[in-house]
Amino acid sequence: MNEEKLKQLQIRADAKQRPTRSLWAIFLGVALITGVALYFWWPRPTDDLRVVKGGKPVDGTGTGSGATASTNQLSSRPAGPKDAVLTVSGYIINRERIELSPRFMGVVKWIGVKKGDAVTNGQVVVFLDDAEYQARRLEAEGRLNNAKAAAEKAELTYNRIKKLTSENVESKQLADDARLALESARAVVKEIEGQLELIKTFIAWTIIKSPIDGVVLEKLVDPNELVTPQSFGGTRGPSTALIAVADPKDLQVEIDLNEQDLSKVFLNQKCRVSPEAYPDKVFEGYVAEIAPEANRQKGTLEVKVQIKNPDKYLTPELSAKVDFLGQPVAPAGR
Question: How far apart are CA 25 and CA 29, in angstroms?
């Protein structure tokens, strides 16, 4: 019985050999995958070239002409001119920002503009309360009339005494006293006339007009507000103003130029300006100003590019690209 069980458990000789066909298939697959990996890993001269929209090869290092084409495609900006020596970004600004301020402390009686309104040169934009100065004007006119009457009386007295003196009726000293009294009365008239003119000047200052054709950038006060004269303005510190106006047809691009690029920029250099918001819009310009002093902390120099014939697509304080083209151009008249 035991021998029969042992024979049943014994493995036949033909079953002891392992099948080799599947094993060789596995080895072949591994070798194939390894070969493909080595093919793609091995460096070739054409690896630095890549293809962008349009099917043109581009140098992947960014040093060739192909890199420029790739950059323009990615930024959706038209290709720049071949003679552009430098391209930088800056901010569109008004060449002049004018803040209108009162000449004396007063109360705003009326303001006739709001932010974004167009104004013309000489247009009345603000009235200040002039009640106090109108009262002073009436007072000065009354004193002037009295002074003129006193001067007229002094003149009559002097003429009478002068005639009597010529007839030796009155002494010369009395005539001199009358002449001096007449001159004093006339001087009082001049003094009050000056005071009246000063009051009229203050009244004129209560009417504030726009000094340019432009657009209201900011409305800084409302009716019935107390305003004071501007002490100092611009970027130097706080200021008190009624409104701020600027000419929308007089725009520049303000650029902080790195010192290593200074040799590529000069006055009256021809430029091309394109706002970042509208990259397909291109405007002519020229270098109008190069700051005489650099910023030591940033290592930059301020450059301003005047834009010729700006339009509604150029908005102050938005960014713009500037291509410096290398050749000079005659600046446009302002």
Answer: 6
DSSP letter for 192, please: H
What is the identity of the amino acid at 319?
S
- Name the nearest CA neighbour of 48 among 38, 62, 36, 37: 62
Gyration radius of the chain over CA positions: 45
Closest CA relative to residue 320, chosen from 283, 274, 280: 274
Q: Are 328 and 269 in contact (CB under 8 A)?
A: yes
* Rounded Cα–Cα distance for residues 271 and 15 (Å): 89
Residue 49 is given by DSSP the state E
> What residue ranges in 129-192 does DSSP mark as E strands?
none
What angle (nearest 5°) sits at the alpha carbon of residue 286, between those of residues 283 and 288?
130
Token couple for 303: 């450059």
Average pLDDT of the residues in 269-288: 94
Residue 241 per-residue DSSP state: -
Contact 155, 182 (CB under 8 A): yes
For the chain, the residue count is 334
Residue type, 53: K
pLDDT digit string, tens, across residues 20-34: 556 666 767 777 777
Q: 227, 226, 234, 250: which is closest to 316 by C-alpha? A: 250
Residue 308 maps to which CATH number?
A: 2.40.30.170
- Residue carrying the six token digits 């003679």: 83
Whether 170 maps to a domain, the answer reads yes
Q: Which two tokens stand for residue 42?
A: 């091995």
43 located within any domain: yes
Query: Helix, strand, coil proportions of the chain in percent (round to 5)?
Result: 35, 25, 35
- Identify the domain boundary among 210, 244, 278: 244
Task: Return d(Cα 217, Cα 312) in angstroms, integer.
Answer: 15
What are 207-253's pLDDT values in tens digits?
999 999 999 999 988 999 988 886 554 444 445 788 999 999 999 99
Helix (H) or strand (E) run with residue 26 in it: helix 21-41
Cα(5)–Cα(9) distance, integer angstroms? 6
What's the CA gap between 145 and 185, in Å, rounded? 12
